[in-house]
Structures are given as C-alpha cells and as structure tokens.
C-alpha cells in the first residue's frame, strides 16, 4: 500500500536547504511505496502552514523532516504538533534525531510518551525561572484570593524594580 508523504525543508540559518534535500531524498528512495510531495520553505514563505493545513485535511500519511527545529521553535510547540499528528494518524520522521514512527504502534507510543514528558519538563523549568509569572498564575487559579495576591505580587515587583534603579518600569 502506498503512503502519501510530505517532506518539509526549511532554511533556518544559512538560507540553504541543499543538505536537507540530499538527505531526505536519499531516505525517501529507501521507501519505494512512498509517494512524496516536497514543501520547501525559504525566507518569508508560509510553507509550514500550507503543509500543516494539508495534513489536517488528510492529504498525507507521513510527515518527514530533517530536524525538529524545522517543525517547531519550542518543545511545547513540537509536542503539540506531534500530538495532532498522532490524533490524525499521521506518522512522523525526523532524520537527524533518528525518529521514525512508521515502524509501528510501539514506536509511536514511546515517542509521544517521551515528548509529553519533555514538554512537562519545559513548562516546569519555565515556571521556576519566572516566579512573578507563577505567582500571577496561582492568583488566577484562586479567584477569591486572586486580587489580593496579584496586587501584592505587583507591589513587590514594583518595589524591586525601583530599588534596582528602574523606577521608570515600576508602577
């Protein structure tokens, strides 16, 4: 049975996709049952949005990329996209990371479980680095006490900014 495969190339830093094209075409040749459509993004293009739109419409069974950073700019965004692929029953291949969910159900389950853990880790790290944001989130979760907590947090933040010589930023 043939699979409809979307291959995505993205020029991230140096503007060249030659290495990606060479590697991904070589990989796809190993799968003669794949019918490949290539999406090439260069500066200013919205090709990723076009690819994701086509995937959502059920036009592809597999999305093949060269590296995670081609598809997402954060772990959270990557996990969200891959969970969407999972829900749509779309397999995923990332050459540089050695990920290939076309191998079967167990490879899919392991990948998505691992990535969900990474996304949770990223959220936990971000919360620990931004205590004022965390306090505001806690205040929103407790509406009855939220206004007082938020007001106190903003007051403390303003005092800290003023003491640091940033009185123009303090409220």
What structural keywords apply?
15% strand; 56% helix; 171 residues; alpha/beta; 5 strands; 2 domains; Rossmann fold; five-stranded mixed β-sheet
How does this model look, in words?
The protein folds into 2 domains: 3-125, Rossmann fold (3-Layer(aba) Sandwich), CATH 3.40.50; 130-163, no CATH class. 56% of the residues lie in helices and 15% in strands. It has helices at residues 18-29, 47-56, 68-71, 75-87, 105-129, 131-141, 143-163; strands at residues 3-10, 34-41, 62-65, 91-94, 99-100. Strand 1, helix 1 and strand 2 form a beta-alpha-beta unit.
The sequence of SSEs as H and E is: EHEHEHHEEHHH
Strand content: 15-25%
Gross geometry:
elongated
Look up the CATH topology of the largest domain: Rossmann fold
| CATH H-level superfamily of the largest domain | Resolvase, N-terminal catalytic domain
Compute the gyration radius: what is it?
22 Å
CATH architecture grouping of the largest domain: 3-Layer(aba) Sandwich
Give the class-level CATH name of the largest domain: Alpha Beta
Mean pLDDT figure: 75
How many DSSP helices? 7
| Structural category | alpha/beta
Question: How many β strands by DSSP?
Answer: 5
Helical content class? 55-70%
> Uncertain regions: pLDDT < 50 for 5+ in a row?
none
Specify the oligomeric state.
single chain
Largest sheet: 5 strands, mixed
The main sheet orders its strands as 2-1-3-4-5
């Amino acid at each position: 049975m043939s699979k409809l495969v979307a291959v995505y190339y993205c020029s991230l830093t140096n503007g060249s996709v030659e290495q990606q094209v060479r590697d991904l075409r070589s990989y796809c040749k190993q799968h003669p049952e794949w019918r490949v459509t290539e999406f090439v993004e260069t500066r200013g293009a919205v090709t990723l949005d076009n690819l994701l739109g086509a995937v959502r419409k059920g036009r592809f069974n597999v999305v093949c990329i060269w590296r995670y950073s081609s598809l997402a700019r954060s772990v959270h965004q990557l996990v969200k996209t891959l969970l969407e692929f999972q829900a749509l029953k779309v397999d995923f291949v990332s050459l540089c990371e050695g990920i290939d969910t076309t191998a079967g159900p167990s490879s899919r389950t392991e990948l998505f479980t691992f990535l969900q853990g990474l996304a949770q880790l990223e959220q936990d790290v971000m919360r620990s680095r931004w205590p004022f944001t965390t306090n505001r989130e806690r205040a929103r979760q407790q509406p009855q006490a939220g206004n007082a907590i938020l007001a106190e947090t903003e007051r403390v933040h303003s005092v800290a900014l003023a003491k640091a010589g940033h009185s123009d930023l303090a409220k």
